[in-house]
Amino acid sequence: MKNLVLTAIVASTALVSCGTVQSLVQNTFPYTANVLISTGVPADKEVSSTATATNVQTWFGGNNNAKIKDVRISDAKVSVVSPSGGNLSSLKSIKVYISSNGTGERLVASRNNISANSSSLNLDINSESGYLDEVVKSSGLTVRTVYELKNQTTSDMNLKVTLNFNSVPAN
Fold first, then answer.
1. pLDDT by residue (tens digit) across 53-102?
2. How do residues 16-25 score in pLDDT, each as one tens digit?
3. Which of 74, 130, 135, 155 could form a disulfide with 166 if both were Cys (CB 3.0 to 4.6 A apart)?
4. Under a CB-based contact definition with an 8 Å cutoff, are residues 93 and 145 in contact?
5. 3-state helix/strand/coil string of 34-71
6. Rounded CA gap, 150 and 43, in Å?
7. What is the DSSP string of 61-104?
8. pTM for this one?
9. How far apart are CA 38 and CA 97, in angstroms?
């Protein structure tokens, strides 16, 4: 009986430590882009905003020698930064693309028919975007946000788009 209890404790410890090692080994890194929606933006027309991902390059040293692989988008969120107390009710749709020097643009997240009356919204991840190693590890990573309004805003609105990526160490 004593051996059975000891074996159970050792097995439990091994399983927990494997999970801990897995979470330590798997990298998660963020990127945020700011999007300004001006009062002059017309409704029912797609508008594009582009930002360069400087902090993602910092994670990887800005080169293709980063010792990671299997980079995927894990989650994406859009939230209102200003005006204070603002909400996303004027948004009709939003799409987020990433690209870099020498790579094509890839849709990573989107949301259509937005009916949220809140200040933040989780976007739908594009499962067909696949591995993003080549895009994220290249220099000049760019995030392009395409949005459409239901109606014009009465004041400028600042949005923050947050993208989180996952990767594993390369051998």
1. 655 555 555 555 567 788 899 999 999 999 988 889 899 999 999 988 87
2. 444 434 444 4
3. 74
4. no
5. EEEECCCCCCCCCEEEEEECHHHHHHHCCCCCCCEEEE
6. 5
7. TTSTT-SEEEEEEEEEEEEEEESTT--STTEEEEEEEEE-TTS-
8. 0.78
9. 21
